[in-house]
Design goal:
This protein is mainly beta and about 150 residues long. Helix content is about 0%, strand content about 45%. The chain has a four-stranded antiparallel beta sheet, with no helix packed on it. It has a three-stranded antiparallel beta sheet with strand order 8-7-11, with no helix packed on it. The model has no long low-confidence stretch (mean pLDDT about 75).
């Protein structure tokens, strides 16, 4: 993606679809909303003029995020999450979760699968609410398909 001569542009993701195979590739913006100079822009004070995003390779890993909603009254929610951010010793994986969300039912677990590059040893997960509803959870875990490491928060 290359910026033209117009103003800056900040996107969450870009998808490319194949009408013959119906395969859809999704490219997430590698910059978070809190990163300085995060825009696609020809003005270097605002961002970068060219951003290269590649398709996932066989080296990409599958991460499974499992959430457990509390069994307390009114702890469940519908459509609360906006994104996950997994941080590790080798990097960060940011995933828009809004398209993957169902309802969080009190006392139940829900799983989300994220693909991305190896972040190394998982150190943290950031969960961002995108709607005005409330949700009370007991725990969240992240499992790495390659190392079989499971971290519970």
């Amino acid at each position: 993606v290359t910026a033209g001569n117009s103003d800056r542009w900040f996107f969450e993701w870009i998808s490319v679809g194949n009408s013959n195979t119906h395969e859809i590739l999704r490219f997430n913006n590698p910059f978070s909303a809190t990163t300085e100079n995060r825009y696609l822009s020809t003005d270097t004070k605002e961002g970068v003029a060219t951003l290269r995003m590649t398709t996932q390779t066989t080296a990409d890993l599958l991460y499974t995020v499992t959430t457990k909603t509390s069994a307390l009254p009114n702890s469940g929610s519908g459509m609360i999450l906006s994104s996950f951010k997994i941080e590790g010793t080798k990097g960060t994986l940011i995933e828009d979760a809004s398209a993957k969300i169902g309802k969080f039912v009190a006392g139940k677990e829900q799983k989300f699968q994220l693909r991305g590059e190896d972040v190394g040893t998982i150190e943290s997960i950031e969960v961002t609410a995108g709607n005005s509803d409330g949700w009370f959870f007991e725990w969240i875990s992240v499992a790495n398909s390659n190392t079989h490491e499971i971290i519970r928060f």
